[in-house]
Amino acid sequence: MAAPHEVRVILQDFGKPDSHTIGVYEAGGGYKALKKILVEEKDKWTPDAIIEEVKKSNLRGRGGAGFPTGLKWSFLPKGNDKPKYVVCNADESEPGTFKDRYLLEELPHGMIEGMIIAGLALNSNHGFIYLRGEFYLGWQRVEAAIKEAYAKGYLGENILGSGKTFHLATFRGAGAYICGEETALLESLEGKRGHPRLKPPFPAVKGLYGCPTTVNNVETFAAVPHIILKGGDWYAKLGVGDPKSGGTKLFSVSGHVKNPGVYEVPLGLPLKKLIYETCGGLREGRKLKAVVPGGSSTPILTADEAENATLDYEGMAKLGTMLGSGGLIVLDDSTDIVEFTYRIAYFYAHESCGQCTPCREGSRWVQDVLARVRAHDAQSEDVDTLLSFTENMGNGTTICPFADAVVMGVTPIVKKFRPEFEAYLQRTEAVPSGT
Ligand SMILES: Cc1cc2nc3c(=O)[nH]c(=O)nc-3n(C[C@H](O)[C@H](O)[C@H](O)COP(=O)(O)O)c2cc1C
Fold first, then answer.
1. Is 217 in the pocket of ligand 1 (CB under 6 A)?
2. Which domain holds residue 319?
3. I need a surface site. Which of 37, 78, 270, 271 has the fewest CB within 10 A?
4. Among candidates 73, 63, 116, 91, which has minimal Cα distance to 204?
5. Averaged pLDDT score across all residues of the chain
6. Is 345 helix (H, G, I), strand (E, B) or coil?
7. In sequence order, what are the beta bridge partners of 170?
8. CATH assignment of the domain containing 119
9. Tally of domains within the chain
10. Residue 85: phi, psi to the nearest 5?
11. Quick one: 360 and 327 in the same domain?
12. Same domain, 300 and 343
């Protein structure tokens, strides 16, 4: 059952028995968008027409950066001299983010149909789904769904008698967060170590095997069939905030709310409504302390900042943060913010791929200083030292934005909650256990 403020588009079959099977997907209108493009209105739906409809929808990439999807697709060269690839980023590993996992396990056909439509828009015959290795059930369900789609003639040669071809295969990662970064993902998909590439050239020009490639998130692809079926304008208007943020968005809400989970709400919904109405509010007797709005690498909001925040790309930018992947972490006043920050820093130090010195060394230093604070073994100038070296970590000093993610995830917490870090330096009680 939908929670207050939910508008279920992508999640329309969520919770139904066997929602992952093609029968349930087709019963709810699944693969109708593909039929519309290839059979019913085949003269209308040129590749450019598909891209224009996606542009109209104001769909922005749901993997974190929020780049407009139609625009990204329009960057792929039109000629046919090289193969083109459609790649789905299903590596989801950002702490706090767990929405794609549900799509893979419960609703894989939406993503598959979206990828086939992307293939038609980009004149591509091949797609790959790069899955986080730990998503074993998701991988099994996606594999089964691909087989179902081949059996029904939605994948393969001569799709629905149209003469069009699209093949789809899965690839399982080996548990590295950096392989969610699109160029590291492509390296890994080519069988190499998952180290990010320098951009430009961007994947649209030189991606998989040096060929034009689009890399999009699971949720991004899953929105596409609905846009084709009901129209880009319809989708855009589902958003209730800034018009540039069209449609609905999945939020994976964790932390101190009564009903954590995955919710689909219109972009632009006030953050407070999501926390207090959709998610049932905070635990009894507790007050809001902070919210991490879009996964661990998005700058934290204090309770005061969260008061009037809206869940769209522009609303978050106004507050100096990002909507990111929609991994919303709610922290109440019982949270030990130093411990919370240390755990984020531990994750990043562990996951830095090591290719660039500022990131490899910097993420470890951040962890080390926070470990000293946490152990009541730091000097007050250590907090300033941490803030000063994080200034040299991101900002274009590295190949990919991983170092920026460390800085954005950690320094706003230290700056906004500094008295709590200072208080740790005064105390002498036992060191917290575990990492
Ligand atoms: C360190 C790092 C990790 C990332 N992890 C993911 C991920 O797990 N899933 C994802 O879709 N995008 C991830 N991204 C963003 C991708 O690089 C890319 O922007 C995205 O897949 C594009 O798809 P979209 O336009 O549909 O959002 C990550 C980026 C960075 C820098």
1. yes
2. 248-332
3. 78
4. 73
5. 95
6. helix
7. 129
8. 3.40.50.11540
9. 3
10. -125, 145
11. no
12. no
Residue 92 lies in a domain: yes
In a domain, 212, yes or no: yes
Atom of ligand 1 lying closest to residue 218 CA: 11
Question: Is there a contact between 330 and 257 (Cβ–Cβ < 8 Å)?
Answer: yes
CATH code of residue 317: 3.10.20.600
Q: How far is CA 299 from CA 156, 206, 339, 413, in A?
A: 44, 31, 17, 8
* Type of residue numbered 324: G
Query: Could you give the CA distance from residue 44 to residue 160 in angstroms, rounded to a whole number?
Result: 17
Judged against a pLDDT cut of 60, whether residue 284 lies above it is answered with: yes
Q: Which atom of ligand 1 is nearest to the CA of 219?
A: 26
Query: Which CATH number is 352's domain given?
Result: 1.20.1440.230
Q: Compute the distance from residue 216 Cα to the ligand 1 centre, in Å.
A: 8
**C-alpha radius of gyration, the chain, whole number:** 22
E strand intervals along 137-267: 167-172, 213-217, 248-255, 261-266
The phi, psi pair for 241, rounded to 5°, reads -110, -130
- Report if residue 59 sits inside a domain: yes
What is the distance between the alpha carbons of residues 155 and 113, in angstroms, rounded to a whole number? 9
In this predicted model, what pLDDT tens digit does every residue of 221-241 receive, in sequence order?
Answer: 999 999 999 999 999 999 999
Distance separating alpha carbons of residues 379 and 183, to the nearest angstrom? 40
128 lines ligand 1 (CB under 6 A): no
Residue 47: what are its φ and ψ, rounded to 5°?
Answer: -55, -45
Would the CB of 328 count as within 6 Å of ligand 1? Answer: no
Which residue's alpha carbon is at the smallest distance from atom 30 of ligand 1?
181
Whole-angstrom Cα distance, residue 238 to residue 227? Answer: 11
Q: Please, which pLDDT band fits residue 48 given cuts at 50, 70 and 90?
A: very high
- Ligand 1 close to Cβ of residue 105 (< 6 A): no
For 13-40, the pLDDT digits (tens) are 999 999 999 999 999 999 999 999 999 9
Helices (H) and strands (E) counted in the chain, each on its own, are 18, 9
CA of 409 to the centre of ligand 1 (A): 16
Ligand 1 atom having least distance to the Cα of 66: 27
Nearest by Cα to 229 from 68, 100, 113, 107: 113
Ligand 1 pocket test target in 69, 111, 171, 182 with most atoms within 8 Å of CB: 182
Residue 263 lies in a domain: yes
CA–CA separation, 289 and 257 (whole Å): 12
Residue 312 is predicted with a pLDDT of 95
Residue 112 CB partners (closer than 8 Å, separation 6+): 142, 145, 146, 149, 154, 155, 168
User: Looking at the structure, do residues 224 and 341 belong to the same domain, yes or no?
Assistant: no
Q: Quick check: CB of 75 below 6 Å from ligand 1?
A: no
Q: How far apart are CA 156 and CA 432, in angstroms?
A: 55
